[in-house]
């Protein structure tokens, strides 16, 4: 007789009964929770998203195309992509290093390092941008030295990159730390015992085990890097065609009562977010078994 045909024992039925008790308390409560969730999603997510695309195309394809291909808009698009291309790889490297140190080693100041990783979550982006201005601005602590050496950080690309790195730093590390801690160090120790170098151990053991957590962290980091407004607004100076990223360009267009153009550029940001979400969903669907196995592990 196969195992599938054996009668369930009392201890096997207990988890099923517990699940039924939890989910079957009240059907009214279930429907109420679902309705509230759907209403929230429609009101605060789907409706604004649909509004962006509707307003972007309200004046037709030609007006939409002109708004996107306008020189200042193209400069904002290029700057946004460039900043993300610099900030995201930097945060990948530093995030992996920080997560590795926190998850795999015990050292003095470990809790302090963990707190520093969370610092950008607790500090307003505007305040963080102001800190960079106070440090690297013309009247800042390093301002005279930078001016004497003809180095410009604030109101230029370096300042925007620094502000973006600061606000996006926690995402990669925060995804990796709990996963690495749950994995432990047994596999790495085995690889080292068998003669693998530390670098090879990291590439062939550690990195494959945390690749899905790393991927999610990169997605979040990239989305925040392209959509950051507060910190970048302070350090950029909002110079059209030079230091305006896409969010800043949208604000300027809207303040100048160019609503259609503002929504056109905003639709690009929304489109990038949707592409990111679609890519994440596609990979989760295609590699569902591998993701589930890594999480169980």
Structure description:
By secondary structure, this protein is mostly helical. Helices cover 79% and strands 0% of the residues. Helix 11 (211-227) runs antiparallel to helix 14 (259-286).
Q: How much is the average pLDDT?
A: 85
Oligomeric state as shown: single chain
Number of strands: 0
The whole-angstrom Rg is 25 Å
Which key phrases capture this entry?
mainly alpha; single chain; disordered N terminus; globular; 297 residues
Helices and strands in order:
Layout: H1 10-23, H2 27-56, H3 61-69, H4 71-104, H5 110-122, H6 125-136, H7 143-148, H8 157-183, H9 186-193, H10 198-209, H11 211-227, H12 230-236, H13 246-255, H14 259-286, H15 288-296
Helix pairs in contact: 2-14, 3-14, 4-8, 4-11, 5-8, 6-8, 6-12, 8-11, 8-12, 9-10, 11-14, 13-14
Describe what is shown at a glance.
With about 300 residues, the protein is mainly alpha-helical.
């Amino acid at each position: 007789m196969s195992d599938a045909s054996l009668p369930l024992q009392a201890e096997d039925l207990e988890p099923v009964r517990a699940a039924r008790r939890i989910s079957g308390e009240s059907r009214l409560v279930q429907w109420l929770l679902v309705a509230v969730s759907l209403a929230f999603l429609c009101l605060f997510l789907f409706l604004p998203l649909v509004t962006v695309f509707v307003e972007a195309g309200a004046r037709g394809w030609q007006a939409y195309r002109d708004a996107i291909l306008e020189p200042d808009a193209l400069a904002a698009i290029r700057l946004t992509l460039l900043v993300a291309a610099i900030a995201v790889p930097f945060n990948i490297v530093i995030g992996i290093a920080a997560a590795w140190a926190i998850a795999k080693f015990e050292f003095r100041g470990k809790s302090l390092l963990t707190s520093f990783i969370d610092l950008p979550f607790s500090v307003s982006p505007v305040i963080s941008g102001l800190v960079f201005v106070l440090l690297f601005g013309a009247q800042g602590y390093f301002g005279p030295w930078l001016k004497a050496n003809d180095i410009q950080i604030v109101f230029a690309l370096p300042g925007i990159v620094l502000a973006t790195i600061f606000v996006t730093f926690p995402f990669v590390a925060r995804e990796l730390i709990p996963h690495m801690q749950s994995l432990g160090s047994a596999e790495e120790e085995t690889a080292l015992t068998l003669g693998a170098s530390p670098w090879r151990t990291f590439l062939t053991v550690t990195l494959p085990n945390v690749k899905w957590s790393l991927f999610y962290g990169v997605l979040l980091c990239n989305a925040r890097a392209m959509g950051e407004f507060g910190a970048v607004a302070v350090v950029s100076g909002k110079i059209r065609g030079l230091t305006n990223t896409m969010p800043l360009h949208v604000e300027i267009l809207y303040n100048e009562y160019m609503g259609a153009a503002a929504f056109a550029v905003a639709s690009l940001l929304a489109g990038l977010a949707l592409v990111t979400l679609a890519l994440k969903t596609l990979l989760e669907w295609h590699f569902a078994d591998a993701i589930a196995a890594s999480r169980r592990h």
